[in-house]
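Intended use. Records like the one below are meant for learning the mapping from a protein sequence to its folded structure. Do not use them to infer anything beyond what is encoded.
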Amino acid sequence: MRILLVEDDPILALTAAAVLEEGAHQVVGPAHGVTQALELASASAVDLALVDINLAGRDEGIELARRLRAEYGIVSVFVSGQRQVAEDNRDAALGLLGKPFRLDDLLRTIDVARALIDGLAVPPPPATLELFVKSPR
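Structure written out for the chain above:
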């Protein structure tokens, strides 16, 4: 999958990108803010966005996920420790991968998201993933 990675913590962004690439995914980014994420989305074919809710100290990831879907048809999974904010905005994403998470949970989350996007049977999600929808369509 081509995954837009939006994370403002540089260490976590680089670690997640490396894990995704080792899992045979193509990483677009990482983007560290909304403007950069939208520029990457407009210039690249993206299958899924992994979006941190708290970007630059604000909850900009919520609106970003909504814009990615509305403007580019890109569905998102929130990656955040802000469970309540994510749940309050469950219409904006497929689900929430809660921080902290194990690195293999990241790859399992991609498998679940791919199944949802493709309309296939959904594999068991990792314990750190809360699904908000059964299908993104």
